[in-house]
């Protein structure tokens, strides 16, 4: 079960049962092991097991041998139990009522779940701690949803997606699938890598919020950065007709049209070739705040636009991985990963481990995160000169064009010189890579072997380029 659903179980006893079910679904476990894993007493675990066996006796299995008693649960069994526990948890009921435009009375919720008003108030505080990740909270009597509208839509999209197997929400009265399928036929730019279910739910949530009067107003900068290609006019016409006929909206808001166009068209995995374009479009509306903080703190990135792209990538990848769509993660050879610097990769691996338990996917995810950082981090505005000063004779121009140029930023200029002809005043934007050990050493001088090994030269240039982009890359300056 994914973390999103687990976090919506606020009641401690229920949350513990959910974690217990997840554990025994994966493998047979005894009471002691479960107690250690969940950090509670053996008596508490025994009570939970007895409760589950009493109410779900045909779903929880007890295995006895000569030495111990272990327990297990079929996947189908876990599904049925979790579905029932959702109905007993106030958070799912409250959020469902809000999403479906129903008035949620504080007293009615307390009465429905047989708890006091003071207990419900404490419960709401705990629930709001989780919702704060999405820049939203529940408050008031009746209970309503407050916060950043873009973040609220992100939250409800995730909730619909993660709970779709449990049929928590009532089916929509309007067929959004028909609308999107018709438009997808017209919009041939749609990628086959899109998750059509997520696209439908994102559209469904937007329409639901609009019907509640919660609309989006974009700034002039946001409007200008949303590229309106030749498909936009067709989308706008089709959307207006759909809204008028099916939703009773005669004049669909222009900013909502722009937002929906981008949200539907670009709701794919974020390791495409157009990351630089995505950065320029301020795609903050798809971000999970938890992933944003993760990238910011661990990778120490301060560029907010790059943080947004990274968190978008993790958000979409996390959802897709949760439902086993492994084909959308490229299985990249480890040798490609090794081309990136060790410090950055270690940090990217740490992030990958934090949001997925699939060990086979971690290297590919870490590689992609490193790739996004390296290729999209803001580069220095000033030009940097690298002098490759060798005692060898090599075809510099051909080598530079065919082998090195793809690895280097445009504002890094490489010049080859023979050691006998080299002279340069080294400044802060000048570096020297050489195998002539008579050249004076400095912080900007990097020594390589003589005779020149092209692979070593290439690796040094690549590392220097990476250092130029994001800094703090340790290089071997004293090789002899």
UniProtKB/TrEMBL annotation:
<dbReference type="InterPro" id="IPR050661">
    <property type="entry name" value="BglG_antiterminators"/>
</dbReference>
<feature type="domain" description="Mga helix-turn-helix">
    <location>
        <begin position="80"/>
        <end position="158"/>
    </location>
</feature>
<dbReference type="Pfam" id="PF05043">
    <property type="entry name" value="Mga"/>
</dbReference>
<keyword id="KW-0805">Transcription regulation</keyword>
<dbReference type="InterPro" id="IPR036388">
    <property type="entry name" value="WH-like_DNA-bd_sf"/>
</dbReference>
<keyword id="KW-0804">Transcription</keyword>
<protein>
    <submittedName>
        <fullName>Transcriptional regulator</fullName>
    </submittedName>
</protein>
<dbReference type="InterPro" id="IPR007737">
    <property type="entry name" value="Mga_HTH"/>
</dbReference>
């Amino acid at each position: 079960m994914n973390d999103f659903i687990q976090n919506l179980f606020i009641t401690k006893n229920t949350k513990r049962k959910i974690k217990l079910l997840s554990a025994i679904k994966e493998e047979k476990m005894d009471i002691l092991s479960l107690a250690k894993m969940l950090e509670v007493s053996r008596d508490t675990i025994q009570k939970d097991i007895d409760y589950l066996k009493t109410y779900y006796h045909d779903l929880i299995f007890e295995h006895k041998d000569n030495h111990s008693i272990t327990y297990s649960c079929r996947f189908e069994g876990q599904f049925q139990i979790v579905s029932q526990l959702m109905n007993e948890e106030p958070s799912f009921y409250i959020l469902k009522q809000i999403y479906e435009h129903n008035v949620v009375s504080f007293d009615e919720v307390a009465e429905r779940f047989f708890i006091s008003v003071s207990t419900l108030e404490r419960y709401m505080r705990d629930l709001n701690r989780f919702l704060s990740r999405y820049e939203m909270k529940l408050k008031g009597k009746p209970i309503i949803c407050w916060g950043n509208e873009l973040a609220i839509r992100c939250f409800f999209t995730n909730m619909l997606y993660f709970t779709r197997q449990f049929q928590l929400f009532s089916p929509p009265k309007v067929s959004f699938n028909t609308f999107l399928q018709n438009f997808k036929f017209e919009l041939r730019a749609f990628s086959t890598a899109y998750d059509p279910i997520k696209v439908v739910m994102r559209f469904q949530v937007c329409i639901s919020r609009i019907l509640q009067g919660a609309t989006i107003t974009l700034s002039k900068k946001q409007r200008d950065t949303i590229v309106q290609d030749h498909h936009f006019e067709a989308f706008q016409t089709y959307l207006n007709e759909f809204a008028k006929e099916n939703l009773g909206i005669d004049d669909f808001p222009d900013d909502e049209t722009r937002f929906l166009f981008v949200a539907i068209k670009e709701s794919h995995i974020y390791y495409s070739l157009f990351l630089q374009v995505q950065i320029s479009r301020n795609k903050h509306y798809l971000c999970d705040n938890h992933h944003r903080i993760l990238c910011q703190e661990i990778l120490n990135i301060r560029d907010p636009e790059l943080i947004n792209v990274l968190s978008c990538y993790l958000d979409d990848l996390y959802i897709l991985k949760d439902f086993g769509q492994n084909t959308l993660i490229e299985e990249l050879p480890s040798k490609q990963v090794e081309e990136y610097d060790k410090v950055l990769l270690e940090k990217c691996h740490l992030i990958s481990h934090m949001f997925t338990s699939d060990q086979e996917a971690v290297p590919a995810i870490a590689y992609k995160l490193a790739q996004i950082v390296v290729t999209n981090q803001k580069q220095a505005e000033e030009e940097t000169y690298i002098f490759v000063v060798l005692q060898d004779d090599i075809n510099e121009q051909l080598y530079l064009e065919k082998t090195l140029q793809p690895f280097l930023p445009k504002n890094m200029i490489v010049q080859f010189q023979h050691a006998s002809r080299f002279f340069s005043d080294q400044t802060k934007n000048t570096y020297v890579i050489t195998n002539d050990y008579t050249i004076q050493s400095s912080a900007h001088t990097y020594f390589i072997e003589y005779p020149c090994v092209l692979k070593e030269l290439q690796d040094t240039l690549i590392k220097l380029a990476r250092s130029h982009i994001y800094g703090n890359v340790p290089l071997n300056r004293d090789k002899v």
